[in-house]
Amino acid sequence: MKTFLRLLLGTACCCVASGAIAADMALPSPQLALRPSLTWTGCYVGGNVGGGVNTITGFDPTVGVSVGNGNGAGFVGGGQVGCDYQFNSIVVGIAGMFDGSAISGTSPNLEVPGVTNKSVIPWLATLTGRIGFVATPSTLLYAKGGAAWAQNNISTTNVSSPLVPVGPVSSSSYTASGWTVGGGLEYAFAPHWSVFAEYDYMDFGTSTRIFNDSPAAGGGSGPFNITQQVQIAIVGVNFRY
Predict the structure, then answer these.
(1) Are residues 47 and 139 in the same domain?
(2) Residue 23 — very low, low, confident or very high, per pLDDT cuts 50/70/90?
């Protein structure tokens, strides 16, 4: 009887030990259980820096002559916010971006010798949709397109012309609206963090703007046709919720 009890107790202990080992093997470790799967679905906020160039020309419809350009270049930087949704290897989303800008440039005025044109873009903004392809789980190639806006401060200044007083001649400040297309690559280096590099082309077409002369130049006003395109290249980081 004692021998039987010893065998029964030993068998029970072996079964309990075997069950514990099996349970340990079957249950995932806490680290694996808590590790999130990588997905591009979600909303994000981030920042960007880069540079841009402005191609802008003016035409005087009153006398039918070109007044030249104010092409320029400079730094851009700001932030973006958006949301994406991933299904299979395709990602679709919408995003808004606002960048401060130091893009500016000067050039000779072709209509009045001795006068210079100057253009300054204080800020740029876009509202775009985007579609992307997940090349690897952490790498997204994408294209984007939508609406664009640019604040323009354009002025002319007499530096040597005898036709008008030396100093400011005319100016116009306005917000141009147009369209944009672009594309880039985004890389997720952590479950909630990604970096990206992007190129954007913005076209604001041709619009008629009223330029007001300074009091020293007579205080009048007149229309000018302005044609403008802007290109920017930026890098940035996003935090994804």
Answers:
(1) yes
(2) very low
